């Protein structure tokens, strides 16, 4: 058995260059005669753009929408075939109107970024401010200003799902809540960056960009610039984190690509952190009015919900405006089995920057709403929150299971995951500790959440959405080198998932070639097969599956040649440990490669003419997605005098199917959990009534650090998927989904003796104190959100 194959804790190959400072990012690439770009951005949220005043001496260094329009550059259009969807055209540079603070208005170029910023500061905008849609609920009102003048309202899309809802309103236990999540920022270590130039030798636009989707960016550039795709080459070097933010074709990429062709020299834009926080990287702003119905014993019977999502001003390419709202209705039921369901969703256009996908797309918000509701529903029924969930979760004997919205759960034991998590936290001991009280006067509470993560969903899911990135067969090209090494080419791209290591492990599992002799080539549309990219926790399932299938095909070809060299039949040999074996005789893959490349006269007459290079496509047996899942339980202490929340203990039980590299999985879960803690307690991107962002630096926007993130206790389960290679499931987003619900449930458990509860994230000290004061003032809801939240218990 290989010590480097699937299931082994192999050290990351990538880390050697990263730890030595040898990684190469867009900002590290410098070309001769390169110019830097700074953008003039809108200072207001909504205005008619009347004129752009450019000093005469700078006119050759400033470019506006008119320059792009005259050159035939098309706006970015990210549409869908979903019924009722309203299209928005996003120009690379605003023309006629600006719709959010930070929207691109003009592009300034100079030999240095500082010089370009000086030019941008000299450009003056003449505009006439318009009424602002600063908040999604305001945007739904009939008399709200129109973000897009030709729309009849501000709705990108409405959805409605109803299943067996008659009669459930008479359930003996009913609880209603209003729940909100705040807008966030993704904040990867590396921001966006793009460097473009025109290669006159090959008549090709070359674009270096930090992206998760190089092939999709190429398509977007070709469409907007009017170029054949063969004339566009997108190269993605190392990427310092993405989390969904780099899964979008941005107007900056389009503007810079056009400018390099206009000037005939390389042009670069590197996003600074102010641009990132205030204007380009917002996500996750949800509002739920949700009601739960249960039996008197505490079994979930039904959910009723109206969800509103703030989508910002535009739908970003390939698709963003309805990515959250379009999924909420179908994934809100989570891992629970209940008979009655009704959900409406509204995707609202506002005068804010577009909402982009972020790790745990839609899942984090729905988990927050549902799991907070379930805790209160359990208390209304007089049972422990743990007991209500155990009664209502999908059971292992029901797998595979089609839930109330026809999500097909492939495998798993959800009750067992929750049982292990609750056992690890020692719930009875915590309840006894709560009765005694804490010596320092703090209040302790325990909270939990169970989640599932649909991942690697494919054609059968996305074809119905009618968007420009429907995934099909994922391809891998694999080639044995003349000296017996292996090259793998894939179209997906790593932005921290350790794919250079884990895909090498998959190939090692099939061929036995040492992973140090396996090279992954990705991030270059010129040399890699087409792919919709890295998103939705799909890479190990899809690219890993393709590499596994490619390994199987290479095994056949190596075995055929090796058998001839060993004087036996192909069905008598095996390939393992980098060797072709026949009983006690063997030849190495290196020897086989030597024969194919350098001594073809020694090949069997019927050797495959394709040689030792294969391109293989892969789709799972059923491509509706894998369902990773888990249970999180947290113990927190809340200081009722200052509102501070401390996480005392945090337990995670997760099931990602077969773990290709458990160490890498640990890192994924830990990192996601840290982000989830930020969502729960710290991160918020606020706007005022004029649509002005109130955070623009990390002095205003608080990210959790080492002192805020405890070391979680992580327990693995491995329930194999019946549909994928090795039984793997996608888990890239899992760690980020459950922490907000888990932690806020724990805070509410701690505050329950005071009659205070919170239904908003993040739970800041200010909101905790507000909830306590509301409770002491006779308002039993204690929401801490600045408004009274509806409660009803029957």
From TrEMBL:
Residues 20-131 form the Aldehyde oxidase/xanthine dehydrogenase a/b hammerhead domain. One of its GO terms (molecular function) is oxidoreductase activity. Residues 775-794 are annotated as: Disordered. Gene3D superfamilies: Aldehyde oxidase/xanthine dehydrogenase, a/b hammerhead, Aldehyde oxidase/xanthine dehydrogenase, molybdopterin binding domain. InterPro entries: Ald_Oxase/Xan_DH_a/b, Ald_Oxase/Xan_DH_a/b_sf, Ald_Oxase/xanthine_DH-like, AldOxase/xan_DH_MoCoBD1, AldOxase/xan_DH_MoCoBD2, AldOxase/xan_DH_Mopterin-bd_sf. Keywords: Molybdenum, Oxidoreductase. SMART domains: Ald_Xan_dh_C. Pfam families: Ald_Xan_dh_C (PF01315), MoCoBD_1 (PF02738), MoCoBD_2 (PF20256). This is Carbon monoxide dehydrogenase. It comes from Neopusillimonas maritima. The lineage of its organism: Bacteria, Pseudomonadati, Pseudomonadota, Betaproteobacteria, Burkholderiales.
């Amino acid at each position: 058995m290989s010590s480097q194959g699937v299931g082994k804790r192999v050290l990351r190959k990538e880390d050697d260059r990263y730890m030595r400072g040898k990684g190469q990012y867009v900002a590290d690439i410098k070309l001769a005669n390169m110019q830097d770009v700074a953008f003039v951005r809108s200072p207001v949220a909504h205005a008619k753009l009347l004129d752009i005043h450019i000093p005469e001496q700078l006119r050759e260094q400033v470019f506006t929408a008119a320059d792009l329009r005259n050159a035939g550059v098309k706006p970015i259009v990210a549409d869908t075939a979903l019924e009722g969807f309203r299209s928005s055209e996003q120009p690379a540079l605003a023309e006629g109107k600006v719709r959010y603070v930070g929207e691109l208005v003009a592009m300034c170029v100079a030999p240095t970024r500082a010089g370009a910023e000086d030019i941008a500061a000299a450009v003056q905008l003449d505009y006439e401010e318009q009424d602002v849609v600063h908040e999604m609920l305001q945007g739904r009102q009939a008399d709200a200003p129109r973000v897009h003048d030709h729309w009849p309202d501000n709705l990108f899309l409405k959805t409605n799902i109803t299943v067996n809802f008659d009669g459930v309103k008479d359930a003996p236990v009913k609880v209603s809540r209003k729940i909100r999540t705040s807008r966030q920022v993704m904040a990867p270590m590396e921001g966006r960056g793009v460097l473009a130039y025109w290669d006159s030798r090959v008549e090709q636009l070359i674009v270096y960009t930090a992206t998760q989707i190089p092939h999709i960016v190429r398509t977007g550039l070709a469409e907007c610039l009017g170029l054949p795709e063969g004339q566009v080459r997108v190269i993605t070097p190392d990427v310092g984190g993405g989390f969904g933010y780099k899964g979008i074709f941005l107007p900056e990429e389009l503007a810079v690509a056009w400018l390099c062709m206009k000037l005939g020299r390389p042009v670069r834009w590197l996003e600074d952190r102010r641009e990132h926080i205030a204007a380009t990287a917002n996500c996750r702003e949800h509002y739920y009015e949700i009601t739960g119905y249960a039996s008197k014993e505490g079994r979930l019977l039904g959910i009723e919900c109206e969800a509103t999502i703030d989508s910002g001003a535009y739908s970003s390419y390939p698709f963003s405006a309805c990515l959250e709202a379009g999924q909420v209705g179908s994934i809100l039921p989570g891992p629970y089995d209940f008979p009655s369901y009704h959900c409406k969703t509204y995707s609202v256009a506002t005068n804010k920057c577009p909402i982009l996908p972020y790790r745990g797309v839609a899942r984090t918000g729905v988990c927050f709403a549902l799991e907070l509701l379930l805790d209160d529903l359990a208390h209304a029924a007089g049972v422990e929150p743990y007991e209500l969930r155990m009664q209502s979760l999908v059971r292992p004997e029901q797998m595979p299971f089609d839930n109330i919205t026809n999500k097909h759960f492939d495998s798993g034991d959800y009750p067992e995951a929750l049982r292990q998590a609750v056992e690890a936290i020692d719930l009875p001991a915590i309840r006894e500790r709560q009765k005694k009280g804490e010596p320092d006067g703090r209040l302790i509470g325990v909270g939990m959440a169970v989640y599932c993560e649909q991942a690697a969903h494919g054609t059968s899911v996305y074809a119905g959405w009618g968007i420009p990135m429907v995934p099909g067969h994922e391809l891998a090209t694999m080639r044995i080198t003349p000296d017996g090494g292996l090259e793998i080419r894939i179209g997906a791209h790593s932005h921290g998932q350790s794919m250079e290591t884990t895909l090498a492990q998959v190939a090692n599992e099939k061929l036995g070639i040492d992973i140090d002799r396996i090279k992954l080539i990705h991030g270059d549309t010129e040399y890699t097969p087409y792919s919709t990219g890295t998103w939705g926790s799909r890479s190990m399932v899809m690219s890993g599956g393709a590499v596994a299938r490619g390994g199987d095909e290479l095994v056949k070809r190596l075995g055929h040649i090796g058998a001839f060299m060993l004087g036996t039949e192909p069905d008598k040999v095996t390939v393992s440990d980098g060797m072709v074996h026949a009983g006690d005789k063997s030849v190495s893959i290196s020897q086989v490669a030597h024969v194919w490349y350098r001594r073809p006269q020694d090949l069997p007459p019927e050797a495959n003419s394709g040689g030792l290079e294969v391109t293989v496509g892969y789709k799972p047996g059923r491509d509706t997605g894998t369902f990773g899942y888990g249970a999180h339980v947290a113990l927190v202490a809340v200081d009722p005098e200052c509102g501070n929340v401390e996480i005392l203990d945090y337990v995670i039980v997760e099931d990602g199917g077969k773990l290709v590299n458990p160490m890498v999985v640990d890192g994924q879960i830990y990192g996601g959990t840290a982000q989830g803690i930020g969502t729960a307690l710290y991160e918020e991107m606020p706007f005022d009534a004029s649509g002005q962002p109130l955070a623009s630096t990390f002095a205003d926007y608080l990210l959790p650090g080492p002192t805020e993130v405890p070391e979680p206790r992580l327990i693995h389960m491995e329930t194999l998927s019946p549909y994928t290679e090795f039984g793997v499931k996608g888990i890239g987003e899992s760690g980020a989904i459950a922490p907000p619900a888990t932690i806020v449930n724990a805070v509410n458990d701690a505050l329950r003796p005071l009659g205070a509860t919170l239904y908003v994230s993040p739970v800041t000290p200010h909101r905790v104190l507000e909830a306590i004061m509301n409770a002491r003032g006779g308002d039993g809801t204690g929401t801490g959100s600045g408004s009274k939240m509806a409660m009803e218990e029957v």
